[in-house]
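Regression test case RT-17, inverse folding.

Input:
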């Protein structure tokens, strides 16, 4: 059940099951590490355009230190022209597989302590 929604000053919406949170500044280097451990929480990032691709690890399941906006391009949810994407926080995984999609190449990575997906 959704209890709180907040729009951060930078255009980041956080849906929570408790009190709403502030996301801080969002740009193409912004990742999801500050939300690590809040599994199931959904966060919508408004990515400014035009953007510049940054580092991403994984495919469909991404490390939480990946660029959220760039992962959104990789997943086909937006373009480097900008837009909004919603992620859902997940626990870490034992490994992440990289791939090339939509003009973005993500990298493989081993075990990591936090992840996100595009619901």
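Golden output:
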């Amino acid at each position: 059940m959704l209890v709180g929604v907040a729009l951060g000053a930078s255009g980041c919406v956080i849906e929570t099951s408790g009190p709403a949170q502030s996301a801080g500044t969002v740009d193409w280097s912004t990742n999801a590490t500050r939300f690590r451990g809040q599994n199931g929480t959904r966060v919508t990032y408004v990515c400014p355009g035009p953007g510049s691709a940054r580092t991403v690890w994984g495919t469909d399941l991404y490390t939480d230190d990946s660029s959220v906006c760039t992962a959104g391009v990789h997943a086909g949810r937006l373009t480097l022209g900008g837009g909004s994407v919603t992620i859902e926080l997940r626990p870490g995984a034992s490994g992440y597989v990289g791939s090339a999609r939509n003009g973005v190449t993500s990298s493989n990575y081993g075990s990591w302590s936090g992840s996100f997906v595009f619901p």
